[in-house]
Amino acid sequence: MRNFLSCKQLSDTQIEALLQRTREYSLSPMVLGGSSLLVGRMVANLFYEASTRTRVSFEVAARRLGMDVVNVSASNSSIEKGENLRDTLETLAAIGVDIAVVRHSQPGVLEQLVAESAPGLQLVNAGDGDNLHPSQALLDAAVLQSAFGKLDGLRLVIAGDIRHSRVAASALELLPRLGVEDIRLVGPKQLLPDAQPENASLMTEDFDAAIAGANAVMMLRIQHERITAPKLPDILQYQQRWGLNTERLQLANADCVVLHPGPVNRGVEISDAVADGSQSLIRQQVAMGVPARMAIFSTLLENTD
User: Fold this and answer.
1) Is 189 left (phi over 0), alpha (psi -120 to 50) or beta?
2) In the chain, where does the domain assigned CATH 3.40.50.1370 lie?
3) What is the distance between the alpha carbons of residues 137 and 141, in angstroms, rounded to a whole number?
4) Per-block average pLDDT, block size 10, for the chain (305 residues)?
5) Where is 128: in which H helix or E strand?
6) With respect to CATH, is domain 134-285 assigned 3.40.50.1370?
7) What is the value of pTM for the model shown?
8) CATH number of the domain located at residue range(s) 12-131+288-301 in this protein
């Protein structure tokens, strides 16, 4: 594995190896060499968009592996002076950075750079516009496996802003390959794709119908920063029709778990009672972000010595 840009690029063997390594790191960060595994290697976090969970977990993951970390802020670097992404990455490569973790607003920007054979370092996609977020899909799969074991037969609802969600796109890429055959998409018409994605079993505006019998529900926030669509429903209407509260959660299976990639807009797409309830795995998702990203780093660098 030379870069980590999408789940689609990975073989089934590579996916299982990453998940196995994630599980091992989640039990003990020292299990595969711990803090000395990648001493002397360097990662740069380059975030053109705001982030807390993803950026911090990549940084913690690198430090737990013994890596040096450079955080590059777009507002305090040559990026602000107009330097393009290619030149920035080539600069980082020239000073010895091994891996660049990049979040960018342009969909497909890293795949384009790789196709053009630039730059000379390994790239990790930390979210590219409304396109993909593969490390989130990896950690979500690990959380679901921890909760259910095998994912065969799992009924998953993804609810909210599907149209603009890179999290939903990567989940639709990865989870069916792990046995999830029933993925239901729900949200307002303005926030659903124009056509039902190939890996989705249902796309609807009816949350109550979608959640019936579900084993897992992944809630998504409204991504106002990406929306140019017609006027959305007001908050009260959104809460009533597409918000997850304890009453609606009771329509799912008794074993149903709740996920949310964050940031969580409490009182909009999810109630406090559900977000903090016994069925919520939101904190487990945040925690799993570190071992999942440790697995990505160690896998990328293990064959480059």
Assistant:
1) alpha
2) 12-131+288-301, 134-285
3) 6
4) 96 98 86 67 94 95 94 68 83 95 95 84 96 98 97 97 97 98 96 96 98 98 77 88 98 98 96 98 98 97 71
5) strand 122-128
6) yes
7) 0.94
8) 3.40.50.1370
